[in-house]
Amino acid sequence: MEIEFWWLLALPLFFALGWFAARIDIKQLVSESRALPSSYFRGLNFLLNEQPDKAIEAFIEVVKVDPQTIELHFALGSLFRRRGEVERAIRMHRNLVEREDLAHGERTHALYELAQDYFKAGLLDRAEELLLRLDGSSYAESALKLLLEIYEQEKEWVRAIGIAGKLEAVTGRSHQKEIANFYCELAGGEIMHTRAEAARPHLASALAHHRLCVRANVLLGEVETHCGRHEAAIEAWKRIESQNPAFLGLVAGRIFGAYGSLGRAAEGVNLLRGYLARYPSLDLVNVVFQGMLETQGTEAAYRLVSDELRRTPTLLGLDKLLEAQILEAPPERRRDLELVKELVNQHIRGLAMYRCENCGFRARQYYWHCPACAEWETYSPRRTEEAKLPA
Question: Between residues 60 and 353, which one has the greater pLDDT?
Fold first, then answer.
């Protein structure tokens, strides 16, 4: 293959152009590095040596020397907020918001960061004001999520419903479960203030948004009870079986109480025994045991817990068996059985708990809204001991 003569002349020219380009890049890099304040390099050095406090002070000096370092402002403000120095974070982000030369995108970012600062500081009204200004911006989704958190904290359930609806439109993810719970919160408030009838529309809305909302039927049964309609209350609670039968244990005591008010306690025990046979639950065992004690006597109650203990061996079940034995035992044996029961009780205090499946927080009472992670309907209706048993 022959090389044309003009290529030999062009090669030195290409080498010269490459050399000049490299020189220009090196000069630019050196000039840019010289333009950076020495505090910047001190800050980097402190970070590498795992001295974050000294690094922060060094970077603050950079910000004072060169106010144009926008990204460093954002980084420092976020770092202050994470460290709990909320006042410093607020000052940093407020200075950015007040700058007239800030680009629109950077100003939006600064507003969102400042809203987070106010939220962390507990200044929820100020945070809300800024977050509402971000509607339609690139931070709209994040702003709506934070607004929803604010309204949940303030128990502003009507506003929470509106924001959850907007979040659905923005994200495409369903928030029907949360919306149903917000309506249940409104209904619960009406019941608490003895306005039971006013709770009905809220519960109807809850079930319209989420037909499997067990909580709505739990509260509807309470509404009917407050109004003296025990039959209707029982029917509301019985509908839970078609939604999620695992929750029947939570309303078993109320069902038995309603049948008792109607003078049909034995019928209530039979219904609950049927539930217990199909959906084993320690809460159901407790209620049926007490119901059988009242309606059929000690021996029948003892046989019930004995059979359940063989079917589902748990310490909580053993505790009920011992209780039944104590009721039947002669006085000379009763003291020994009470001692054994006390020892069993010491071991089961940490087992008769409900556990959040999202964060693991445990509590003696059932929560629809986890007090630790603030998620909705994350508690299993089964106690921690029976939750470990095979289904």
Answer: 353
Amino acid at residue number 270? N
pTM for this predicted structure:
0.77
Task: Indicate the range of 66-75, 210-219, 252-261, 372-381 predicted with least confidence.
Answer: 66-75
pLDDT above 80 for 64: no
Q: Binning pLDDT at 50, 70 and 90, where does residue 72 land?
A: low
> Is 265 or 304 the better-scoring residue by pLDDT?
265
Three-state DSSP at 376 gives strand
Would you give the DSSP letter of residue 49?
A: T
In a domain, 41, yes or no: no
pLDDT at 330 over 90: no
Task: Write out the residue range of the structural domain in which residue 379 sits.
Answer: 353-391
> Would you put residue 49 in left (φ > 0), alpha (ψ -120 to 50) or beta?
alpha
Secondary structure (3-state) at 356: strand
Both tokens of 347, joined, read 């071991």
Structure tokens given for 384: 């921690």
3-state helix, strand, coil in the chain (%, to 5): 75, 0, 25
What residues have CB less than 8 Å from 25, skipping those under 6 apart? none
Burial of 342 (0-12, 13-18, 19+ CB in 10 A): exposed
Task: Tell me the average pLDDT across 283-297.
Answer: 87
Contacts 24+ apart (CB under 8 A), 29-35: none
CB atoms inside a 10 Å sphere around CB 308: 23
In a domain, 192, yes or no: yes
Number of domains, the chain: 3
330: region left, alpha or beta (phi > 0 left; psi from -120 to 50 alpha): beta
SS3 2: coil
